[in-house]
Specification:
The protein is mainly α. It is 79% helix and 0% strand. The protein has a domain of 27 residues. The protein is built from one helix and no strands. The chain is rod-shaped.
């Protein structure tokens, strides 16, 4: 069972704070990695849409069909 911080010795307090900070950093790093992964996937989808639209416009120009 964990004791409140007030009941801990100075050494135990320092270890607890370091441990909590480590877990906080890991959580922040994981959140950042997930965020960057989402942004990377969004950029890939945007690029794919752009390529698809460019191809579509070039095909329409070839056949002279600009009727939407």
């Amino acid at each position: 069972m964990r004791r409140p911080i007030d009941d801990l010795s100075l050494g135990e307090t320092i270890l607890k704070l370091k441990n909590d900070d480590f877990h906080s950093n890991v959580t922040s790093s994981n959140a950042l990695i997930k965020h960057l992964d989402v942004k990377r996937k969004e950029a890939i989808r945007k690029q794919e849409r752009s390529v698809h639209n460019s191809f579509r416009w070039s095909k329409m120009a070839e056949i002279g069909n600009f009727d939407f």
